[in-house]
Structure formats: structure tokens, C-alpha cells
Design brief:
alpha+beta, Aminopeptidase, 5 helices, globular
Length: 159
């Protein structure tokens, strides 16, 4: 699989919005609302950038299929905040392929570990996916995003 990343910008906000809004359950479980608008995407992008995050649209054959948001931290650590696929692209192995693409990119820049916080207060959640990718749960915490505070499992993978 060949993927390309493109930084979020006004020319691709509609694609980002389409990916977010195709995942209504995700939005309900994580944000407490069933859809977002372009103002949300703009605000979220600016806030993430201010905090040092990279917000990337993932393209396959020129078509936007996923979102990656991550932050390079000190000592070779990477915090993966979001990996979201277009709903129609899910359950086809693309999540695994995109994660492996991301992980290889992080290894190439010298990362030694990836951390993520997985919202796990609903079923089915994506903890099993991340375990298959080699992540191990470290501890539980809470995360507030939008109107919702959720329980999360902090997971890490050493590269």
C-alpha cells in the first residue's frame, strides 16, 4: 500500500470534515455529539498546532481516507492522538496498513516509542486493534474532548 500525508489546510478541510462525520459513533463516544462542522475542524486544527501536534490527511491513490494527529515529544517519544479512517474504508485492513505506514515514518525519524490514549468506556472499543499492533496498556486515566469526559487506557509500544 502506498500512502501520502498532507497537512490539514483550508483546501482539504472538507475532506477532513467528511472523515469525521462518517464516524458518527466515534463522535458520540468521544465528543458527545453526532457531527461536527467546518468551524470545529478549523478550531481543532489551530488548537492542535498550538500544542505542537501534526494534523495530517492520509491519501491513498490521491483519495483522502484517514486522519492522523500526533506530536513528537522529547526523548524519541511520539504521542498518537488520533487515527481515524473514513467509515467506508474500515474493516478492510487499511487501519493496520496506515498504522504501519505511520510507525515506519516515526522509526525513520528516530522515534523509540509511541503512546496513545484509547477511549475504552464503551463496547466494542478499539483496544483489541491496538493490542494487535503491539501496544500494551499502562494505566487508566480520563480525557475530556468537546462536551465529553471519557475513561481511557494509556497504551505504549516500544519501537
Amino acid at each position: 500500500m502506498s500512502f501520502k500525508e498532507s497537512e490539514f489546510n483550508p483546501s482539504n478541510y472538507k475532506d477532513v470534515l467528511k472523515i469525521y462525520n462518517s464516524n458518527k459513533d466515534f463522535l458520540l463516544y468521544h465528543l458527545g455529539q453526532s457531527q461536527v462542522d467546518e468551524a470545529f475542524i478549523i478550531k481543532e486544527t489551530l488548537e492542535m498546532k498550538e500544542h505542537g501536534f501534526c494534523s495530517q490527511l492520509v491519501l491513498q491513490n490521491g483519495m483522502p481516507i484517514a486522519i492522523l494527529e500526533y506530536m513528537l515529544q522529547s526523548y524519541g517519544s511520539v504521542y498518537l492522538s488520533l487515527l481515524m479512517l473514513l467509515k467506508d474504508s474500515q474493516n478492510k485492513g487499511l487501519g493496520t496498513d496506515i498504522y504501519r505506514f505511520f510507525e515506519q515514518n516515526m522509526i525513520n525519524i528516530g522515534a523509540s516509542e509511541i503512546r496513545l490514549d484509547v477511549v475504552n468506556d464503551y463496547h466494542p472499543n478499539v483496544v483489541p486493534f491496538w493490542e494487535r499492533m503491539g501496544f500494551v496498556g499502562q494505566n487508566e486515566d480520563t480525557l475530556t474532548w468537546g462536551r465529553k469526559t471519557s475513561r481511557v487506557l494509556v497504551m505504549k509500544k516500544f519501537l
